[in-house]
From TrEMBL:
<dbReference type="InterPro" id="IPR027417">
    <property type="entry name" value="P-loop_NTPase"/>
</dbReference>
<dbReference type="Pfam" id="PF00005">
    <property type="entry name" value="ABC_tran"/>
</dbReference>
<dbReference type="InterPro" id="IPR003439">
    <property type="entry name" value="ABC_transporter-like_ATP-bd"/>
</dbReference>
<dbReference type="InterPro" id="IPR017871">
    <property type="entry name" value="ABC_transporter-like_CS"/>
</dbReference>
<dbReference type="GO" id="GO:0015658">
    <property type="term" value="F:branched-chain amino acid transmembrane transporter activity"/>
</dbReference>
<keyword id="KW-0029">Amino-acid transport</keyword>
<dbReference type="GO" id="GO:0005524">
    <property type="term" value="F:ATP binding"/>
</dbReference>
<feature type="domain" description="ABC transporter">
    <location>
        <begin position="4"/>
        <end position="235"/>
    </location>
</feature>
<keyword id="KW-0813">Transport</keyword>
<keyword id="KW-0067">ATP-binding</keyword>
<dbReference type="InterPro" id="IPR052156">
    <property type="entry name" value="BCAA_Transport_ATP-bd_LivF"/>
</dbReference>
<keyword id="KW-0547">Nucleotide-binding</keyword>
<dbReference type="GO" id="GO:0015807">
    <property type="term" value="P:L-amino acid transport"/>
</dbReference>
<dbReference type="InterPro" id="IPR003593">
    <property type="entry name" value="AAA+_ATPase"/>
</dbReference>
<comment type="similarity">
    <text>Belongs to the ABC transporter superfamily.</text>
</comment>
<protein>
    <submittedName>
        <fullName>ABC transporter</fullName>
    </submittedName>
</protein>
<dbReference type="GO" id="GO:0016887">
    <property type="term" value="F:ATP hydrolysis activity"/>
</dbReference>
Length: 235
């Protein structure tokens, strides 16, 4: 069953067009990544889906369970079951870890149990009473993901969740996202430049180059095809 469908998406900014016809189809329960180099248009694609203020949509359609997202006011998109973890981590600096999660839970009608967030990210349990402003980047990322998850989304969109994190933290974030998918059945669409992290989490990958989708591969294929990784991703 198709959850998210993006057809012929063209989008851009005042300064010019960035996406030139993106087609993506994501089924319920999948883990998918959108890979591409710096400036390829990954964030622009995600922001188009979640109805962010920018970019401007030029053409195409985006549907979630058949609902036209482009016709949907931004504030209603979260209520449809989309959870968004942006590039810049989103938490309240002066609230504790537990309070941050609590605030996110109380903002929706049907949240997941807050205690479950500490199971997906055990490290958060030890620092639950610490103010978010005093956390490491990795811990803030876990809080940011937990805040999106506690709202009980069907689809989580994560923009470079592993960026700038130490390797041990990257593994905890990977593990957390995988468990969210496996144990909660949440569909995942993540954007990454870190191909290793994308392969650790996602089963299928779209490769974006200069605003065009140039390939679609499974993790197995991407793992064995070094030329492909080199050509499109420079790794
Ligand atoms: N708010 C904006 N206004 C104007 N141009 C923008 C804006 N945001 C992004 N762009 C441009 O759009 C293009 C795609 O940017 P985007 O952020 O989508 O790439 P990305 O694949 O997410 O890159 P990165 O890996 O660096 O995060 C780039 O050329 C960028 O300069
Ligand atoms: Mg980006």
């Amino acid at each position: 069953m198709t959850l998210l469908s993006v057809d012929g998406l063209e989008a851009g900014y005042e300064t010019g067009q960035v996406l030139f016809g993106i087609d993506m189809e994501i089924s319920e329960g999948e883990t998918v990544s959108l890979l591409g180099r710096n400036g390829a248009g990954k964030t622009t694609t995600i922001r188009s889906i979640v109805g962010a203020e920018t970019p401007r949509i030029i053409d195409g359609s985006i549907t979630f369970r058949g609902t036209d997202l482009l016709a949907c006011p931004t504030h209603e998109i979260a209520d449809l079951g989309l959870g968004y973890v942006p590039e810049e981590r989103r938490c309240f600096p002066r609230l504790t870890v537990a309070e941050n999660i609590h605030v996110a839970a109380t903002s929706v009608d049907d949240p997941l149990p807050e205690s479950e967030m500490f199971e997906f990210f055990p490290e958060l349990d030890q620092i639950r009473d610490r103010d978010a402003k005093n956390l490491s980047g990795g811990q803030q990322q876990m809080v940011s993901i937990a805040r999106a998850l506690v709202a009980n989304p069907e689809l989580m969109l994560l923009d470079e969740p592993c960026e700038g994190l130490a390797p041990t933290i990257v593994r905890q974030v990977e593990e957390g996202i995988r468990r969210i998918n496996e144990e909660r059945g949440v569909t995942v669409l993540m954007v990454e430049q870190n191909v290793a992290a994308a392969m650790a989490i996602a089963d299928r990958h779209y490769i974006l180059e200069e605003g065009d989708l140039v390939n679609e591969v499974t993790t197995a294929r991407l793992r064995e095809d070094e030329d492909l990784r080199q050509e499109y991703l420079g790794v």
